[in-house]
Every structure is written in structure tokens, then in C-alpha cells.
């Protein structure tokens, strides 16, 4: 599977730490791109309408950057950079990459949302407890485990790397 370039921490910051708002904005952004904007871009490209393609690609670029989906924003920017110059020549591979990045982002978001719900459920739906554990994991546990992975890599210790990677996976 391909890597999804995402920075939810910055997106959450832009939503003033409101996870429900972030969830709503992400869902609306993906839904609009999936059900409207990509088809409008394809139609514009078929008609040779670079200006219309630019309008919608630029919109996806900005909205996806705002919600922290950098890979999706980068794919939209590549298309936007081409069509804002007034040409649609060579745009088809870029719209296909944009479609793929959107699909990956949606899949990532669905998995993230489910994992978050499962983790919260394991905390008895106690958000304070959940955030306390998450903060401890981010500040202490995971950095320590990453150090273990790095040390095993540096030392060529395959068994140690495997053990450290399993611990990191378990923590995640």
C-alpha cells in the first residue's frame, strides 16, 4: 500500500483542538471532492477548459492542505500548476494521481476514525483518560521505542529490530 502524507496534528490545531469539527471538515472535504469536484475537473479537461479545471483543482489543493492531507494537496497542486498555465495537455496522468491520492486519503481516514473509536471504547469512552494515555504515549513511550528501533538498526541487530518494531506496533 502507498504511503499517505498526512499531518492531522496541524489540522487539529487549525480546528482549535476540536476533534468533532476536524472530523466534520475532513468528511465534507472528501465527500465534495469525491462526488463533485473530480468529475467537474474530468469534464473540464475533456472540454479543454483549463480555467474550470484550475478552479476545482485549486479548491481541492487548499481544502486538503487545511485538513492536513499533504499528499492529496500535492497531487492537486501538480494538476493545478499545469492547468493554471492555460493547457490541459498532459493532465490525464495528474487527474489519475489525484484520484488515487483521494482514495488513499479516504481509506486512511476511515481506518483512523475506526482506530480512534476503538481506542476510546477501550478507555470506557472516557475522553480525559484517552487523551492522558495518548499524551503519555506520544511524549514518552513511542520516542523510547523509536530509539530502540534506531539502536537495533545501527547495530545490525535483526532480532532486536523485530522485537522493537513489534513493541512499537503494539503501542500504536
TrEMBL record:
<dbReference type="Pfam" id="PF01627">
    <property type="entry name" value="Hpt"/>
</dbReference>
<protein>
    <recommendedName>
        <fullName>HPt domain-containing protein</fullName>
    </recommendedName>
</protein>
<keyword id="KW-0597">Phosphoprotein</keyword>
<dbReference type="InterPro" id="IPR036641">
    <property type="entry name" value="HPT_dom_sf"/>
</dbReference>
<feature type="modified residue" description="Phosphohistidine">
    <location>
        <position position="58"/>
    </location>
</feature>
<dbReference type="InterPro" id="IPR008207">
    <property type="entry name" value="Sig_transdc_His_kin_Hpt_dom"/>
</dbReference>
<dbReference type="GO" id="GO:0000160">
    <property type="term" value="P:phosphorelay signal transduction system"/>
</dbReference>
<feature type="domain" description="HPt">
    <location>
        <begin position="19"/>
        <end position="119"/>
    </location>
</feature>
Amino acid at each position: 500500500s502507498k504511503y499517505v502524507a498526512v499531518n492531522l496534528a496541524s489540522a487539529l490545531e487549525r480546528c482549535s483542538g476540536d476533534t468533532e469539527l476536524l472530523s466534520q471538515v475532513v468528511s465534507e472535504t472528501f465527500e465534495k471532492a469525491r462526488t463533485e469536484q473530480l468529475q467537474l475537473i474530468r469534464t473540464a479537461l475533456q472540454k479543454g477548459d483549463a480555467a474550470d479545471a484550475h478552479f476545482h483543482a485549486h479548491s481541492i489543493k487548499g481544502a486538503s492542505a487545511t485538513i492536513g492531507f499533504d499528499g492529496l494537496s500535492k497531487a492537486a497542486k501538480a494538476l493545478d500548476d499545469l492547468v493554471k498555465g492555460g493547457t490541459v495537455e498532459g493532465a490525464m496522468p495528474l487527474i489519475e494521481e489525484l484520484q488515487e491520492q483521494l482514495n488513499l486519503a479516504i481509506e486512511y481516514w476511515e481506518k483512523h476514525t475506526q482506530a480512534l473509536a476503538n481506542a476510546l471504547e477501550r478507555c470506557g469512552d472516557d475522553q480525559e483518560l484517552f487523551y492522558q494515555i495518548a499524551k503519555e504515549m506520544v511524549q514518552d513511550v513511542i520516542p523510547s521505542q523509536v530509539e530502540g528501533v534506531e539502536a537495533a538498526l545501527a547495530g545490525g541487530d535483526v532480532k532486536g529490530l523485530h522485537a522493537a518494531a513489534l513493541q512499537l506496533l503494539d503501542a500504536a
